[in-house]
């Protein structure tokens, strides 16, 4: 019964492929199932050990083709080596598989496979449901070519982006063999055929010499410059003068910052009072940015030393630019649902102009477990601190990625504000 179903499926697949113009040769489609022992490495955030199991894969491809043809290969996961752990229920359309098929014989290489992020809800403790992965292979040489499934990655994008990397623990038998005949002419095209089918950028693991391309999923680019203009006239706290001695402290005003955050689990909004304080050090100022309230809750258990916050403080008034301030990583684990507290962020402001400079909270960035959350002020929050400054060589004027934590001066680039 199983063989009849498979044969019927293969016939339908052949009709679909031929109708789509993918398979230009007269060959029919073939499909074969292969099983192999597999070790899956859960994401570090789960705290789970490696999981060993058996992967069952059905690979389909044309039985015959000609040099120059571009064929479609389909990887159907019948059974994954690991189930959804007893931690979280996975929502609909949150799981995306990518993988690698070894090409051997007359033509060699790795064929990147990718499936859509489509799945039914997957309760914790139940089998994983993976979409079919596809890849296109350009045939370059006559002869027999074998296709063998191997490494695959399971990306889940909620509550945060995580990867489970699964690698063969034994030699895997080829799933299908394609007989490629000489096309008798220019194969046309320059595709190598061994790396076609790019991945979505959700996995970066390498196993047994095969690589899946792309970059870590979950990064989001903060493009705003820290909330439009502050005007330089807001009633922030004012301090500082050329005559103040080193060590003079200036306390800023708490300003309410309404943040729009792009996170690995979607867009969020949060408001927090933020205060910028300064201590004079020579012609520069050591800045401390304090958040009075968390802007986000932890979507999962997060280990110690996994969260790193930073901010671009906007410099306005007589001076222009921005100063980067950074905080330490979390000194203890954070439980799922607990607020992620932003520690004091520190950096050094080196004035690039003489006059009254203003300091305003800007874009907040939180890096955690390979993901990036970017929080941009929805509107200008107002000046927290104003300082009477004297221009210093190499100061911020005209600079964008300003001073860094640890006492480095601000420098270079274009202004973060108008």
From TrEMBL:
- Taxonomic superkingdom: Bacteria
Q: Return the annotated region ranges for Disordered.
A: 177-249, 298-347, 375-418
Q: Signal peptide position in this chain?
A: 1-31
PROSITE patterns registered for this protein in UniProt: TAT
Supply the InterPro entries for this chain: TAT_signal
Keyword annotations from UniProtKB, A to Z: Signal
Q: For bias kind Low complexity, which ranges apply?
A: 192-205
> Has UniProt tagged this entry with the keyword Signal?
yes
Q: Where is the composition biased (Gly residues)?
A: 182-191, 206-245, 395-418
Which protein is depicted?
A: Peptidase
Please give the organism.
Streptomyces inhibens
